[in-house]
Description:
Elements: E1 13-17, E2 38-39, E3 48-49, H1 50-60, E4 65-70, H2 75-82, H3 86-93, E5 100-105, H4 112-117, E6 127-131, E7 135-138, H5 143-154, E8 157-162, E9 173-181, E10 184-192, H6 196-205, E11 209-220, H7 223-229, H8 241-250, E12 255-259, E13 263-266, H9 270-283
Parallel strand pairs: 1-4, 1-6, 4-5, 8-12
Antiparallel strand pairs: 2-3, 6-11, 7-13, 8-11, 9-10, 9-11, 10-12
Helix pairs in contact: 7-8
Amino acid sequence: MLVDKKKEIKVEKAVLPVAGLAKRWGEITQYIPKELIPIVRRDTANIKPAIQYVVEEVIDSGVKELIFIMDFKKKALVDWINNPPQTIKDKITTKPYPVVFKMVEQDRPRGLGHAIGCARSEIGNEFFMVALPDDIVIYGVPPAKRMVDVCKKYNASVLLSHTVPKTELPFYGVLFSTPVEKNVDEVHEMIEKPSAVLIEDMQKKREHNMTTISGRYILKAPEIFKEIDNTKPGARNEIQITDAIFNLKKKGHKVYSLLDEGFRIDTGAPHRYLQATHFFYSADS
Protein backbone atom coordinates (compact mmCIF):
# COMPACT_ATOMS: atom_id res chain seq x y z
CA MET A 1 0.00 0.00 0.00
CA LEU A 2 1.43 3.41 -1.00
CA VAL A 3 1.57 6.11 1.66
CA ASP A 4 0.94 9.65 0.49
CA LYS A 5 3.58 11.72 2.24
CA LYS A 6 3.15 15.48 2.24
CA LYS A 7 6.11 17.13 0.58
CA GLU A 8 8.31 18.92 3.08
CA ILE A 9 8.34 22.68 2.58
CA LYS A 10 11.80 24.20 2.40
CA VAL A 11 12.92 27.80 2.05
CA GLU A 12 16.57 27.49 1.10
CA LYS A 13 17.08 30.37 -1.36
CA ALA A 14 16.85 34.12 -0.89
CA VAL A 15 16.77 36.93 -3.46
CA LEU A 16 18.36 40.27 -2.51
CA PRO A 17 17.65 43.06 -5.04
CA VAL A 18 20.62 45.47 -5.04
CA ALA A 19 20.55 46.95 -8.55
CA GLY A 20 18.64 50.15 -7.70
CA LEU A 21 19.96 53.55 -8.77
CA ALA A 22 19.53 55.17 -5.32
CA LYS A 23 18.74 58.57 -6.83
CA ARG A 24 17.83 59.97 -3.42
CA TRP A 25 21.50 59.74 -2.44
CA GLY A 26 22.74 62.06 -5.19
CA GLU A 27 26.20 61.78 -6.73
CA ILE A 28 27.80 59.85 -3.85
CA THR A 29 26.56 56.57 -5.29
CA GLN A 30 28.80 57.08 -8.33
CA TYR A 31 31.61 56.05 -5.99
CA ILE A 32 30.02 54.17 -3.09
CA PRO A 33 27.00 51.91 -3.66
CA LYS A 34 24.18 52.87 -1.31
CA GLU A 35 24.21 49.34 0.09
CA LEU A 36 27.77 49.84 1.38
CA ILE A 37 27.37 53.21 3.11
CA PRO A 38 28.28 52.33 6.71
CA ILE A 39 25.92 52.82 9.63
CA VAL A 40 28.00 54.63 12.22
CA ARG A 41 28.24 53.18 15.73
CA ARG A 42 29.96 54.24 18.92
CA ASP A 43 31.41 50.73 19.10
CA THR A 44 33.60 51.04 16.01
CA ALA A 45 34.22 47.29 15.89
CA ASN A 46 30.55 46.85 14.94
CA ILE A 47 30.36 49.43 12.16
CA LYS A 48 28.88 47.82 9.06
CA PRO A 49 26.54 48.69 6.17
CA ALA A 50 22.80 47.98 6.17
CA ILE A 51 23.18 45.12 3.69
CA GLN A 52 25.37 43.23 6.14
CA TYR A 53 22.67 43.28 8.82
CA VAL A 54 20.21 41.83 6.30
CA VAL A 55 22.61 39.20 4.93
CA GLU A 56 23.34 38.01 8.47
CA GLU A 57 19.60 37.76 9.23
CA VAL A 58 18.97 35.74 6.07
CA ILE A 59 21.81 33.34 6.84
CA ASP A 60 20.44 32.92 10.39
CA SER A 61 17.04 31.97 8.94
CA GLY A 62 18.46 28.77 7.42
CA VAL A 63 18.86 29.95 3.82
CA LYS A 64 21.64 28.19 1.93
CA GLU A 65 21.81 30.28 -1.24
CA LEU A 66 21.74 34.08 -1.48
CA ILE A 67 21.04 35.46 -4.97
CA PHE A 68 21.94 39.12 -5.44
CA ILE A 69 20.14 40.90 -8.29
CA MET A 70 22.92 43.17 -9.51
CA ASP A 71 24.01 46.13 -11.53
CA PHE A 72 27.55 44.97 -12.29
CA LYS A 73 28.69 48.59 -12.61
CA LYS A 74 28.56 48.65 -8.81
CA LYS A 75 32.09 47.26 -8.68
CA ALA A 76 32.59 47.82 -4.96
CA LEU A 77 29.43 45.84 -4.20
CA VAL A 78 30.53 43.04 -6.53
CA ASP A 79 33.82 42.90 -4.61
CA TRP A 80 31.95 42.85 -1.28
CA ILE A 81 29.81 39.89 -2.38
CA ASN A 82 32.80 38.00 -3.80
CA ASN A 83 34.81 38.59 -0.63
CA PRO A 84 32.38 39.31 2.23
CA PRO A 85 33.53 40.61 5.63
CA GLN A 86 35.10 38.19 8.06
CA THR A 87 32.04 38.42 10.33
CA ILE A 88 29.89 36.89 7.58
CA LYS A 89 32.54 34.27 6.74
CA ASP A 90 32.67 33.26 10.40
CA LYS A 91 28.86 33.00 10.56
CA ILE A 92 28.81 30.77 7.47
CA THR A 93 31.39 28.43 8.96
CA THR A 94 29.11 27.75 11.93
CA LYS A 95 26.43 26.26 9.65
CA PRO A 96 26.33 22.48 9.08
CA TYR A 97 25.80 23.09 5.35
CA PRO A 98 27.48 25.27 2.70
CA VAL A 99 26.14 28.79 2.17
CA VAL A 100 26.80 30.25 -1.28
CA PHE A 101 26.44 33.72 -2.82
CA LYS A 102 25.42 34.18 -6.45
CA MET A 103 24.94 37.25 -8.63
CA VAL A 104 22.38 37.77 -11.41
CA GLU A 105 22.33 40.90 -13.58
CA GLN A 106 19.31 43.17 -13.92
CA ASP A 107 19.78 45.03 -17.21
CA ARG A 108 17.85 48.09 -16.06
CA PRO A 109 15.73 48.88 -12.98
CA ARG A 110 12.03 48.42 -13.70
CA GLY A 111 10.68 47.90 -10.20
CA LEU A 112 10.93 45.30 -7.45
CA GLY A 113 8.71 42.83 -9.31
CA HIS A 114 11.02 42.89 -12.31
CA ALA A 115 14.11 42.52 -10.10
CA ILE A 116 12.68 39.43 -8.39
CA GLY A 117 11.74 38.02 -11.79
CA CYS A 118 15.41 38.15 -12.82
CA ALA A 119 16.12 35.35 -10.33
CA ARG A 120 13.82 32.77 -11.92
CA SER A 121 16.65 30.81 -13.52
CA GLU A 122 18.18 30.27 -10.07
CA ILE A 123 14.93 29.28 -8.30
CA GLY A 124 13.30 25.90 -8.69
CA ASN A 125 9.67 25.09 -7.91
CA GLU A 126 9.88 25.87 -4.21
CA PHE A 127 9.11 28.70 -1.85
CA PHE A 128 11.90 31.27 -1.72
CA MET A 129 12.67 34.36 0.33
CA VAL A 130 13.08 37.97 -0.77
CA ALA A 131 14.97 40.32 1.56
CA LEU A 132 15.37 44.02 0.81
CA PRO A 133 18.78 45.32 1.92
CA ASP A 134 17.31 48.69 2.97
CA ASP A 135 15.24 47.19 5.79
CA ILE A 136 16.94 46.34 9.07
CA VAL A 137 14.84 44.59 11.70
CA ILE A 138 16.21 44.38 15.23
CA TYR A 139 15.37 40.89 16.39
CA GLY A 140 15.91 38.08 18.84
CA VAL A 141 14.77 35.22 16.64
CA PRO A 142 15.32 36.46 13.04
CA PRO A 143 11.99 37.59 11.54
CA ALA A 144 12.97 35.77 8.35
CA LYS A 145 13.23 32.52 10.35
CA ARG A 146 9.78 33.04 11.91
CA MET A 147 8.36 33.70 8.44
CA VAL A 148 9.70 30.33 7.32
CA ASP A 149 7.83 28.70 10.21
CA VAL A 150 4.56 30.40 9.16
CA CYS A 151 5.11 29.37 5.54
CA LYS A 152 5.53 25.73 6.56
CA LYS A 153 2.48 25.81 8.84
CA TYR A 154 0.08 27.28 6.26
CA ASN A 155 1.78 26.18 3.01
CA ALA A 156 1.41 29.73 1.73
CA SER A 157 3.22 32.95 0.90
CA VAL A 158 4.17 35.12 3.87
CA LEU A 159 4.92 38.84 4.13
CA LEU A 160 6.59 40.53 7.09
CA SER A 161 4.53 43.47 8.33
CA HIS A 162 4.81 46.39 10.73
CA THR A 163 2.49 49.07 11.99
CA VAL A 164 3.44 52.65 11.07
CA PRO A 165 1.78 56.02 11.65
CA LYS A 166 -1.12 56.63 9.28
CA THR A 167 0.71 59.53 7.65
CA GLU A 168 3.46 57.15 6.46
CA LEU A 169 1.19 54.57 4.84
CA PRO A 170 1.36 56.16 1.33
CA PHE A 171 5.09 55.40 1.22
CA TYR A 172 4.72 51.62 1.58
CA GLY A 173 2.89 48.57 0.36
CA VAL A 174 -0.19 48.42 2.61
CA LEU A 175 -1.88 45.20 3.75
CA PHE A 176 -5.49 44.75 4.84
CA SER A 177 -5.81 41.54 6.84
CA THR A 178 -7.64 39.64 9.59
CA PRO A 179 -6.03 37.69 12.47
CA VAL A 180 -5.73 33.89 12.42
CA GLU A 181 -3.42 33.59 15.44
CA LYS A 182 -1.18 35.84 17.52
CA ASN A 183 0.78 38.14 15.16
CA VAL A 184 -0.30 36.13 12.09
CA ASP A 185 -3.00 37.48 9.75
CA GLU A 186 -4.56 36.31 6.52
CA VAL A 187 -4.15 39.03 3.90
CA HIS A 188 -7.26 40.05 1.95
CA GLU A 189 -6.07 43.09 0.03
CA MET A 190 -2.79 44.85 -0.64
CA ILE A 191 -2.02 48.15 -2.33
CA GLU A 192 1.36 49.59 -3.25
CA LYS A 193 1.83 53.20 -2.11
CA PRO A 194 -1.87 54.06 -1.82
CA SER A 195 -3.04 57.66 -1.76
CA ALA A 196 -4.26 59.15 1.52
CA VAL A 197 -7.78 59.33 0.05
CA LEU A 198 -7.73 55.62 -0.84
CA ILE A 199 -6.51 54.73 2.66
CA GLU A 200 -9.42 56.65 4.20
CA ASP A 201 -11.86 54.89 1.88
CA MET A 202 -10.48 51.45 2.69
CA GLN A 203 -10.66 52.14 6.41
CA LYS A 204 -14.31 53.10 6.22
CA LYS A 205 -15.33 49.97 4.34
CA ARG A 206 -13.50 47.33 6.37
CA GLU A 207 -12.64 46.30 9.90
CA HIS A 208 -9.36 44.76 8.83
CA ASN A 209 -5.95 45.33 10.35
CA MET A 210 -3.88 47.76 8.31
CA THR A 211 -0.12 47.25 8.26
CA THR A 212 2.81 47.78 5.89
CA ILE A 213 5.10 45.32 4.14
CA SER A 214 8.52 45.41 5.75
CA GLY A 215 11.02 44.25 3.19
CA ARG A 216 10.74 40.47 3.72
CA TYR A 217 8.70 38.09 1.55
CA ILE A 218 8.35 34.33 1.12
CA LEU A 219 6.90 33.55 -2.31
CA LYS A 220 6.11 30.41 -4.31
CA ALA A 221 7.81 29.57 -7.59
CA PRO A 222 6.98 29.20 -10.41
CA GLU A 223 3.56 30.78 -9.78
CA ILE A 224 4.88 34.19 -8.74
CA PHE A 225 7.15 34.44 -11.79
CA LYS A 226 4.22 33.78 -14.11
CA GLU A 227 2.26 36.50 -12.34
CA ILE A 228 5.16 38.97 -12.57
CA ASP A 229 5.18 38.41 -16.34
CA ASN A 230 1.47 39.30 -16.47
CA THR A 231 1.69 42.34 -14.18
CA LYS A 232 1.51 45.76 -15.79
CA PRO A 233 3.53 48.71 -14.43
CA GLY A 234 1.82 50.26 -11.42
CA ALA A 235 3.02 52.82 -8.86
CA ARG A 236 5.95 54.90 -10.20
CA ASN A 237 5.39 53.17 -13.55
CA GLU A 238 7.27 50.15 -12.20
CA ILE A 239 6.40 46.45 -12.02
CA GLN A 240 5.38 46.15 -8.37
CA ILE A 241 5.72 42.83 -6.57
CA THR A 242 2.76 43.87 -4.40
CA ASP A 243 0.53 43.92 -7.49
CA ALA A 244 1.82 40.53 -8.65
CA ILE A 245 1.20 38.92 -5.23
CA PHE A 246 -2.30 40.37 -5.02
CA ASN A 247 -3.14 39.18 -8.54
CA LEU A 248 -1.97 35.70 -7.53
CA LYS A 249 -4.08 35.86 -4.36
CA LYS A 250 -7.16 36.72 -6.41
CA LYS A 251 -6.60 33.43 -8.24
CA GLY A 252 -6.86 31.48 -4.98
CA HIS A 253 -3.30 31.60 -3.65
CA LYS A 254 -3.28 32.17 0.14
CA VAL A 255 -1.16 34.99 1.56
CA TYR A 256 -0.37 35.55 5.25
CA SER A 257 1.43 38.30 7.12
CA LEU A 258 3.63 38.04 10.19
CA LEU A 259 3.43 41.14 12.36
CA ASP A 260 6.89 41.81 13.70
CA GLU A 261 7.00 43.58 17.04
CA GLY A 262 10.70 44.34 16.76
CA PHE A 263 12.21 47.67 15.79
CA ARG A 264 12.39 48.23 12.04
CA ILE A 265 14.67 50.76 10.32
CA ASP A 266 14.29 51.68 6.66
CA THR A 267 17.69 52.99 5.50
CA GLY A 268 16.70 53.59 1.88
CA ALA A 269 16.58 57.39 2.14
CA PRO A 270 19.25 59.65 3.70
CA HIS A 271 17.02 60.92 6.52
CA ARG A 272 16.07 57.36 7.48
CA TYR A 273 19.71 56.34 7.29
CA LEU A 274 20.40 59.05 9.88
CA GLN A 275 17.69 57.54 12.09
CA ALA A 276 19.42 54.16 11.83
CA THR A 277 22.78 55.67 12.75
CA HIS A 278 21.21 57.49 15.71
CA PHE A 279 19.57 54.27 16.90
CA PHE A 280 22.73 52.15 16.77
CA TYR A 281 24.99 54.90 18.08
CA SER A 282 22.68 55.47 21.04
CA ALA A 283 22.35 51.72 21.65
CA ASP A 284 26.13 51.48 22.11
CA SER A 285 26.23 54.20 24.78
